[in-house]
Design goal:
Blueprint lengths: L4 E12 L2 E12 L3 E5 L6 H7 L10 E9 L2 E2 L7 H7 E4 L10 H11 L6 H14 L3 H4 L12 H14 L4 E5 L7 H14 L4 E5 L3 H7 L2 E6 L2 E7 H6 L4 H7 L5
Length: 254
């Protein structure tokens, strides 16, 4: 396996009961790059994203075929510690979901729950580092004891990114992280994604094709549960190989 490939997806299919949501997806995701997943609603993007850290396990009556390997290890193997997997592969959801706690305790939550450290000074250090990495430190440094729910939507989303960073993941999954935000907050999230890829591998689901074009290095186009095309982002948007990709990007459907 090439050194820079961290996620290797081979013939991966996913079922909700009898319904096949993903059909034999093959993809390689490279380290320290942003991979965007685009396609119309209900095409399997989010199902695929949640398969990368087994978030779909919490849904009853689901099953998979094929494999997903991260750093060479099959994440669906019975020996896999799913909690450890989700520490390694963090998740930022479409709707910001801060806990009704202080800003500090929101970021410290994962550190404490995962027993990363119990040292108060170390927890404080990680919280500050995470808030800085999520580009929100300057806005909250004087009110860390204030309720996180008092923050604006854009700030809440960056706080949730800080919370994801605090548990030291290697891969960050983002499910439409800016879809509910205003243009200024969206721009901040996009700038943040550019910064974060220096340290993390990022996979983002987005309905916004301009956002995919701006933020990602690679793009996968999904349609009806199939990965139609996967390539360097500039190729997908300027010279797609598949007519269905071109039709979607030019607005003929979707």
């Amino acid at each position: 396996m090439a050194d820079d490939v961290v996620v290797k997806v081979k013939d991966f299919s996913f079922y909700y009961g009898d319904e096949k949501a993903l059909n034999r997806v093959n993809m390689e995701i490279k380290k320290n790059y942003v991979t965007a997943l685009i396609g119309p609603s209900g095409c399997g993007k989010s199902t695929f994203l949640r398969s990368l850290n087994r978030m779909n396990d919490i849904i009853k009556n689901t099953r998979i075929e094929g494999s997903i390997r991260i750093d060479g290890n099959d994440i669906y193997s019975p020996e896999v510690d799913v909690t450890a997997l989700r520490r390694k592969v963090g998740m930022v959801f479409q709707k910001s979901n801060p806990f009704p706690k202080s800003i500090f305790d929101n970021v410290a939550y994962g550190i404490r729950v995962n027993k990363i450290t119990t040292d108060k000074n170390e927890i404080e250090k990680i919280v500050v580092e995470s808030l800085k990495a999520a580009a929100i430190w300057d806005e909250v440094k004087d009110k860390l004891d204030k309720n996180a729910l008092d923050l604006s939507g854009g700030q809440q989303q960056r706080l949730c990114i800080a919370r994801a960073l605090a548990i030291k993941p290697e891969i960050i999954l983002m499910d439409e992280p800016a879809s509910a935000l205003d243009p200024i907050s969206t721009a901040k999230i996009e700038e943040l994604i550019h910064e974060l890829k220096k340290k993390y591998t990022i996979v983002i689901v987005t309905h916004n094709m301009q956002q995919a074009a701006r933020t990602s290095d690679f793009t996968g186009f999904f349609l009806l549960g199939e990965l139609i095309e996967f390539d360097v982002t500039t190729n997908i948007f300027t010279a797609p190989k598949e007519k269905r990709t071109e039709d979607y990007i030019t607005g003929r459907f979707g």
